[in-house]
Amino acid sequence: MTIGFTRVCLVVAAARAEIKVGIVISATGPGSALGQPQLKTVAALPKEIGGEKVTYITLDDESDSTKGIQNARRLVIQDKVDVLVGSSLTPVTMPMLDVALESKTPLLSLAAATAIVQPLDDKRAWAFKVVPNDDLMASAILKYIAKSGAKTLGFIGVSDGYGEGYYKEVSRLAPILGLTVTTHEVYARADTSVTGQALKVMSTNPDAVFIASAGTPAVLPQQALRERGYTGNIFQTHGVASEEFIKLGGATVEGAIFAGEAFTIAADLPAGDPFRHATEQFVTAYEAVNGQKPNMFAAHLWDVVALIGKAAPNALKTTKPGTPEFRAALRDELERGENVYLNNGLSNMSKTDHNGYDERSAFLIKVEGGKFRLAK
């Protein structure tokens, strides 16, 4: 299935400029658990930015990197977008970096891997990322694991950029924190069983197990471990922050702990907390058009457009959309964003940091009673 494209715009005076936002998401395929909520978010996005109308052009990459780069090229060449957004998945995003550089178009990824924005070389000069880097979240959760008393840690991850990015950080940080990683097992997102990997991890008798996966595929390893009698603590990543993870996993995912974003536990934050306020704004807009609550993956797209909304007004002071000058000015303004409270964290972009978060954006979260709760 291919979604072609969707245009959302206002009919306004022809004399006004139009900002074009090209969105590439994984609405079908293995990444659909991430892409479908993002697709539903499009209708909730603001119709004006900086006093100018906005057109959102949305394409499905089918969770395929070849399709993703084809969509990106179509958006910059045929649709002449001012900014690219996407993809939902790291493996699909990485080839899109080349399109952003070649066309000098800002790219704001919805995926998680640190490799999208680091090292900040020429290839990544036009790339930004709204999801906190995996090294930030890995550091927060590994510190927690070490404090829990665990000494040995099994590892199961997806066999792509997301899983390998986490393994790189886990293997780097573990020795520093007094942890020994006993295994490095991998599986594909589309796999229907990880029994073999779970048994290999259990054979090393680790104190705890770390699973580096996202969406509903993250349920499989935890389910396999619990069903085969593993009783140690199981830790996940912020990629599991969706109701589908809890619904599919049921009792087997109870007790899972991960470092994640404020959105997931906003209701546990004090009234008036700026993180809670950011989430309430998004939830209200999303529910108005969809009649249901959004998840964290939907929030990624909302936050990307929030960052564009902060950067565009200053860029519009010097030039008009639809020009190379506007794309360059927008890129420069994204680097100047300071203290922007988002569902994903407190964003402070700079010329040397195209992610912009620190540990103030990492919250410890636990699956408790069938809900995501702020870990005490």
Give an account of the 3D structure.
With 376 residues, the chain is of the alpha/beta class. The chain contains eleven helices and 17 strands. A hairpin with a 2-residue loop joins strand 16 and strand 17. About 2% of the residues have low confidence.
Strand percentage: 15-25%
The biggest sheet amounts to: 7 strands, mixed
SSE ordering: EEHEEHEHEEHEHEEHEHEHEHHHEEEE
Number of E strands: 17
Mean pLDDT: 94
* Structural class determined from secondary elements: alpha/beta
Global geometry: globular
User: How many H/I helices?
Assistant: 11
The helix fraction, in percent, is 25-40%
Low-confidence stretches: 8-15
Radius of gyration: 20 Å
Q: Note the gap between the termini.
A: 44 Å
What is the topology?
Blueprint: E1 7-8, E2 18-25, H1 32-41, E3 48-49, E4 52-60, H2 65-77, E5 83-86, H3 90-103, E6 107-109, E7 127-129, H4 134-147, E8 152-158, H5 161-173, E9 180-181, E10 185-187, H6 195-203, E11 208-212, H7 219-227, E12 233-235, H8 243-249, E13 257-260, H9 274-290, H10 296-316, H11 324-334, E14 340-341, E15 346-347, E16 363-368, E17 371-374
Parallel strand pairs: 2-4, 2-5, 5-6, 6-7, 8-9, 8-10, 8-11, 11-12
Antiparallel strand pairs: 1-4, 3-4, 13-16, 14-15, 16-17
Helix pairs in contact: 1-10, 2-3, 4-5, 6-7, 7-8, 10-11
Short description:
This protein has 376 residues and is an alpha/beta fold. The chain has helices spanning 32-41, 65-77, 90-103, 134-147, 161-173, 195-203, 219-227, 243-249, 274-290, 296-316, 324-334, and strands spanning 7-8, 18-25, 48-49, 52-60, 83-86, 107-109, 127-129, 152-158, 180-181, 185-187, 208-212, 233-235, 257-260, 340-341, 346-347, 363-368, 371-374.
